[in-house]
Design a protein that fits this description.
Number of strands: 12
Helix content: under 10%
Radius of gyration: 19 Å
Shape: globular
Number of helices: 0
CATH superfamily of the largest domain: Jelly Rolls
Number of domains: 2
Structural class: mainly beta
Distance between the termini: 47 Å
Strand content: 35-45%
CATH class of the largest domain: Mainly Beta
Length: 157
Amino acid sequence: MACQEGTEVIPNACSNPTGGPYAPPSSVAGYPKEARMTLRIIRAAEGETVRRTGQPIFEGEVHGHALTGSDSQHIGASLVHFAPGARTRMHRHTSEQFLYVMNGIGQVGDRDGVSTIATGDAVVIPPDTDHWHGAGDTGSPMTHLTVMRTDSQTTVL
């Protein structure tokens, strides 16, 4: 949707001159300052990246960075970085899992096969599906965003 003079401006519906999403300054009437906002902005520098290597679900060098923490009652989101050759062991969750490859090349597999995934690819894994994911044998590192319900239970097989 293009912005035109005389039309209502809807955040993220119009592009700024640099090509990014429209972002009105906090001084624009009708846009509350961040300190008064109900929503929670989690800055990139917040939280910490934790080495997860050695946890029962992982094989190889893996690091995780929780994004939502206690800020969400129902959704958990994390960035997970897999070094070349690293992956999860076969496991399942009681809820759907959504993966979005942020960068690199990886693999995702279930009992029926393996697929290669790369930057920009998304994967929806149904509840109770035996699966694994990570950099696998691609020779590349891979980082993905993972999103699941906070009450999901994981079973490593």
